[in-house]
Amino acid sequence: MEKSELGLDTRLLSDFICELNISRRHVTAYPSNHPVIVTSVGKVLRLLRQLLEIQPVLTIGIARDTLLIGDGFLDRNNPLYRDLARALFGHGIAAISFSGELLPEELQRFNEILCLKKEEVRGRGGVEAVVAAAGITHLQVRAIDYSSFHATDEEMLIPMERETGELWEQFIHGLLEGTLAPWGERAVAWDAVSPEMMAQALNRQLASKPGKSMASYEQAVTDFLRNMDRRGTGGSGDGEALDRLTACISHLNPELRRQFLISTFSALPGRQDLAEELVQRFPSEVVLDALDQIGASNSSLSPVLLDLVGKLAAHAPQGGMPSQVTNRPVSLDQDLSDKLAVIFREDDGDRFLPAAYQETLRTIVAIDGISALEEDEIAALKETLSSHCVETEVNAVILEILKELPEDCQPDILRRNLLDLSGYFLEMGDFASLATMYDRLTSLPPTVERRVTALTSEVLAVFARPEFVAEVVRGLAFWGKAKYDEIRQLILRVGAPFAGPLLDALAQEQRMSLRHFYMDCLQKMGTVTRDATLARLRDSRWYFVRNLLVLLRNIDDPTVVRHIKRLSHHPHPKVRQELLKTLLHYQDPESDRLLHGYLAGKDREQRLMGVQLAAQSRNPQVVAQLLAFLAKGGIADYEFELKCAVVKTLGEMGHVDALPELVGLLRSRNLFHPQKHAQLKVKIVHSLVNYPPSWVGYLLDELCNGDNRELAEAASDVLHRLKGRGA
């Protein structure tokens, strides 16, 4: 089980933050008395009480887009952490403290405050005032104090040297924050607290609440030593701080003293020099008492402590010789040596191992061979232990129960669980489970569906709610490409409720990948997008209207033609071009009139576009216009591009009326532009692959046997392709 710096179970802490964020969002999605909100708040409080078994208060710091526990940030890449951090930071909250006595109605009122607009909260005097006015006493917030921020012209800020007693002050501060003053009050001045006074206070605290505050005490010692380790030893201030620490520990009760010693040496991995300096400052009886406690309780020692004690044992006096290290009496040193010998005696190792652990080790040793699991197998097993996996399996069980609903089953209980799970899966980004839930609820056997109509109607209605749809669409940017396929499947299953929101997102999206995603989903949804698309044709954004025409063409519904014709006078040429493509696709007579205007117009770009679009027309007059372009003698830059486009379009049409003009070009010459004329001939030969073989076979044979090698190779290639098609 992983632990945070404060001794908290990291998985339990993560679950708490996730459930807290879910409960906040439920307030916006459900009425205040809805069972989903009650259930969600209950989960939060259960997790909070588990977290507070080792400390009275949980305090979380708030940055703009991350959360802080102790001295460290939580996972900055976790989207749920970021979401909660932004919500709290947006209301000016710098820290939030949870008490174990927090009531459900207090948490719900706090969530309702977070749903208020920032301006409204500021208008009521700020978040602290609003929380106090709501009667919330077991949850405290600390607002951001902007007066503490100052501007400076310095390019780099260098911390000032610390005063001699500051380390000791930090140590006391850690103890007070941990237990003696849970909300951070300071009853005495720092310099007035002596080591003896602090030890007495800790002894009294342990006597009144045995075991409740140990983790916070250990954390205070850990932070104290780590700060000193980072600064380095040797200064007079550090020596004084170490003297105060050892004096405080010397006056503690034996049990509390043992805990402090173990915590002290555990905080200094790799810094044996500092550990030795600490031991030298302890009276010998303190070390002996600690060893007695360790031996009596079968406690394990940290690697640093083992190394240190081993080094001391190596320097222990032999026989009755006086100690060369200190001036302690020989009998005392001999006592210490005897105790160390017991600990390090090779044949007495079982004394320091629990019986159950020893039995497990013997069982492992007795096995002939142990097959090691692969890393992916270990990861798969760990995944089955996650709380999310449990929720997924619960969902599967409920859906299976619905499939063959027993007579005595209460659908209302299943309904509440499915509603709760739908909100949970949405928060966790598990769109695959949401799609599964939707599929199973819409495919129940008719006999079962009649009995649970109320259940299925209410749960399926969640998938059509605007806030649900909006959250799924936002999830594309929030969760990234890894979730694209899951979200696509969910959207295609639910269908119509997503049409409008996807179109609105398409109109505003700047990223091409997401625009392609929206277009793909809308096209696959088919005719369900028709009305929502037609309703937006008057939009002022030409690029959006152009995409709407693409959608209307791809849904293949001829009834849209009468609605889109009004765009024939749209001010943007690309919209008019897309309109022409769409009308040609539906073979509307109006398309020939528009196409003729493109081909006969003076605008070169439009004429070229008209030639490219003409392949979709079956009007003989269009073919005649294309042949007229070929008959013109010029072959300069634009004329060459135009004629190449005409040859390509005629080839796509495969109209045999074009063959005489094409044959005439193949047998002609151009003295002014021979290279461009030769290139045009090659393009003509390649286009013959789309004409009836019986009409072009003789011509291809003639070209293969001709003197022009380039045309012969092109003709041979076309003949090979025609034979490959079975012509």
How would you sum up this structure, described in words?
This is HEAT repeat protein. The protein has 727 residues and is mostly helical. The protein has four domains: 138 residues, no CATH class; 197 residues, no CATH class; 121 residues; 103 residues. A five-stranded antiparallel beta sheet has the order 3-2-1-4-5. The longest helix has 20 residues. The chain is elongated.
The secondary structure category is mainly alpha
Number of strands: 5
Chain oligomer state: single chain
Cα-based radius of gyration, to the nearest Å: 40 Å
Bulk shape? elongated
Q: How many H/I helical runs? A: 38
Strand-residue fraction? under 5%
- List unreliable stretches of 5+ residues: 154-165, 176-190, 311-328, 343-348
- Tell me the helix content: 55-70%
Give the overall pLDDT as a whole number.
78
**Largest β sheet strand count, sense and barrel closure:** 5 strands, antiparallel
What is the distance, rounded to the nearest whole angstrom, between the alpha carbons of the first and last residues? 72 Å
